[in-house]
Prior knowledge:
By secondary structure, this protein is α/β, with parallel strands linked by helices. It folds into four domains: 1-29, no CATH class; 36-173, no CATH class; 181-239; 257-385, no CATH class. It contains 13 helices and nine strands. Strands 4-3-7-9-8 form a five-stranded mixed β-sheet. Helix 3 (74-91) packs across helix 5 (136-144) and helix 7 packs antiparallel against helix 8 (211-239). The protein starts with a helix and ends in a 10-residue tail after the last helix.
Amino acid sequence: MPALLGGGFWYLRNLIVAGNPLPEIESLGPVSLPHPERLQIGRPDFNIAHYATDTGVWRHYFSPGLHDAFGSLWPLVLLGALAAVLLAIFAGRDRVVRAVGGVALVGLLAYLFTPLGAAGAEGEPVGFAINVRFVIPALLLALVLGPLPRFFDDRRRQWGLMAVLVLVFLLSDRPDAALHDSARVFAVLFVFVAVLVPAGLWLLRERGGGGAWLLAGPAALAIVVVAIGYPLQRHYLDGRFANAGAHDTQIPGMGLDSTYRWARGIEGARIGVAGTTAEFASYGLYGTDLSNRVVVLGARGPHGAFNAIPTCAAFRAAVNAADLDYLVTSPFLNFLHPGDPIPSPEARWLRGESALSPVLRSGEVTVWKVGGELDPAACGTANAALEEIPDTPAG
C-alpha cells in the first residue's frame, strides 16, 4: 500500500495536470491522447531490441558499454544472471523464490524494449553505456537468486559457487587497483562495517550463541555508521563541485563547470536560469548548503507544458517578475553532441541592459548580477528578429 500511494501519486498528478497519467504517450494507434508540447526531446529513444542484429552497433557501442559496466567477462555475468533466473523459476525451493525469479526475468526482458535503452541517433546509440543502469535492479535480483535453488543446498556446492564468483571477479576487473586508490581507507572501513560486522552477527545467530552481542551489535553498528557517515557527508558537501570540469569539460557540468564553482560561494540567492542547458543541469546552482532558490524561466502551456519564452519583451518581463538576484543564460542543450551547444537567444536579448552586469562568462554561459528592473520596451524593433525558439537537434 505505501508503494501504491507513493508511486500512484505521480500518475494521479499527471492525470490532473496533463489529462494523461503517462503524458509521454501521445497516442494509442489512431487515437490522440492529451499531452504537453515539449520544447526539447532528448536523444532519439531507440531500444536495444532495435539493434539486436546490428553487428556494427554491438561492436562499437554495446560491447564497450557492457565491458565498462561489468568487466571483460561481461558475457559470463549476463549468462550467469539468466541461468540463475531460470534455475529459480524451474528449480526454486519454494514459491517465493520462483516468483522472484519470474519478476527478475520480466525485468531483464523489459530492459530490452525500454525506450532510451539505446538512446542516440540512428545507428549511434551513444546513450547506451550510461543507460545500462536501467537493467541494474533486475540484474542484481537475478544474481542474488543464484545460490537459492535446491541444487545449491549442499554446502560443498555453495563453496564451489563462491569460488567461481570470486574467480570471475578477479578475471573481469582489476581488484588490485583498489590498493592504490586514495579512498582505500574508507573502502576498508566500509567493508568492515557493512559486510564483515553483519556477517559476524549472522554467524553468531546461526550458531545459537552471542545473545548479548546480537542485541548490542546492531546498536553499535548504527552508532559507527553515524560516527563515520556524518563527517564523510560534511566532507562531500563542502567539496562538491569544487573541481568541476577539472578532468572532463562535458559531464557533469555540460559547460556549466565554472558556474558551479561560482555558485559554491553564493547563499540564500534567487538564481534564474534560461536556456535548456542550465535548466537541465541546474543542480549545481543550489549552493553547498542548498539555500539558493533556482527559478526556471519559461512560459506555461496547455496540458502542463512549460516552454521557452518566445520574445525578448516577454523574457525581460519574466526576469522582473521572478525578483532575481542573479540570472544564468546558457545555450540550447545538444543532447547528441554535448560539446557542440546550439545558441539560445536569451543572452542576446539582454544586450545593452543597464540593470544587468556580467559576473562570469564561460563559453556560451553567462552569469548576470541583477541590479534592478529590466526594460521590456528596450528590445525595440530588434524584438521582431529575435522572436525565436531554437529547433530541437534532429540528429
